[in-house]
Amino acid sequence: MDFLRNLSSRLPLLTSIRSRMLVIALLPAFLAEFGMVVYFTSQTLSTAEDALHARAGNAARHLAEALPYALISGDTQRVDALLASELETSQLSTARVRDSRGQLIASHGQPNSAFPAAAQYTQRAEIRLPSVGLTENALFNEHSAPPHTQLGQVEAGVSLEQIHVFKRDTLLHAALLMMVALALTGALAWRLSNRLAGQLRHVGQVVGRLAHNDLTVRAQLPPAGEVGALAAGVNEMAEALLAHRGELEKRIREATADLAAKKNMAERANQAKSRFFASASHDLRQPLHALSLFVAALKARNKQPGTQSLIDNIEASTAAMELLFNSLLDISRLDAGAIETHPVHFSLGSMLDNLNKQFSPLAAEKNLRLRFHPIDVPLYSDPLLIERILLNLIANAIRYTDKGGVLVACRRRGSMLRLSVIDSGRGIPPEQQESVFQEFVQLDNPARDRSKGLGLGLAIVSRLSRLLGHRVDLLSRLGHGSAFSIDVPCGDAELIQSPVPLAAPGKLAADALVVLVDDESAILRGMAELFDNWHIDLVTAHSVAEAEQGLASLDRIPDVIVTDYRLPDYTDGLEVIARLRQRFGHDIPAIIVTGDTAPDTISRISHAGFPLLHKPLRPAKLRALLTHLIQQRRAAAVG
User: Fold this and answer.
1) What is the CATH number of domain 513-638?
2) Residues 6+ apart with CB under 8 A from 342
3) Rounded to two decimals, what is the model's pTM?
């Protein structure tokens, strides 16, 4: 179609073909006619001039032959008569006779006053005695002049006025003839060009409509001639384009249907994968959660020093699995859009001090030098997420650096501050620098050694930077180290708010009551052991109905509801909370605990507005949250 549009844009230029054809037709005709006029006019004028010259010469010779007798006899009347007769007979302008001494004897005629003297042609001839019959003529005796003696000279002049008039008339007639011939040629060329231009204009209109996707139009011209062949070619092209478009539309429909089918298959496969991972995560987190609860209870009750190391090893293994699940949870929450940003103006100094205190012992264990080069520039972003990004980058740099050190540097770049984590580690090959931001990518851990990380840190960094709208750059040279940088907008120091000091956590009320709903018996037993150590009353139930029965027997309203999200019989924790609140007529604080990491699940719980804890959870975190909710509820009741 682009070809047709270009061709249609050029076809209006064909309207100038009329003027071009006129030029092509008239110019050769004009040159040919002009040449012919010049040639034949020059030939005619030359012939006329030659005839005029010949007439003057003939007249001069004729007078030279007739005048000897009149001159010898001295008969001037005869001389005048001969001159007058020859002047009239030969149409001379002048006729003169001179004697042998050059004296004028007789003269007839005057040159035309409209023409100068040079505008006439004069022919001269000598007057001599004839050599034949002189002795027999009585006029000549022995005292006469000898034969061939010059008696004088005769002049015969003809005017060139006739030549000028003839030339003028000839040129005028030639010009008129040439104009008539050019007019006829132009009229013929105009008619032919009109016809050709009309045909080409019609073809151009057809091509223009084809260019605008009207493939049903056809040129209506007879196939004879070159333009007819062009029109036939355009029609064939239109037929081919129409057939090609039909074929393309058919292929597009088939491809669209195929893509739709593949998309449906991919969506079903993705949904199946999501359901599988959600189910697998939930099912794996359940026993891990119970295990962490039992380990916490066992650690609180253990009194034998020899058993402590065994408990510590179990706790370390549980913590490693918890780290993996929490990293996967972070990925799921970011993909679900459940993490919101809260940008504020903040100072970078305290954040870097905390990171220095956190990672200095880890760097010292590997004999690495960890240095921080901060600058006093406020930033505007989410400080918690920025700290999480730097935490992952520093941990990754220390993990993959064997000697040398790690530098955390800051550099002002206009309205941005570039935070860079630079290490002297192994470096990353250029072809793998994009893949390191994907999940579970570890370049130097084919055996999947857990001590070398999980391969999720940089994936979390990439997602957090996109969430914040900050750019992350990577510069790396194999064998010399890497530099990860993030550009953060600069803030305003006057808008930095002083941090509010956190109040010390209070103690759990002795008469606090918590209801726990979970379908896993092992989790219920582990929670019961944990709450027993905390001296908190706990009602455990596998379902909401069982929870209602247990609370009814106590005749008490629970202070906090703790429920699993995924429960049997297609119910969930949100329904449990709604039903118990409706039963007791109070907005009882609630905590949802789940091992489900599906993005839609996280998004739904987040929009419901309840605190969310993921299995396996840390007992200390659960206790702190319970303490806060119970104190908040009782303070509201007192107020």
Assistant:
1) 3.40.50.2300
2) 382, 384
3) 0.42
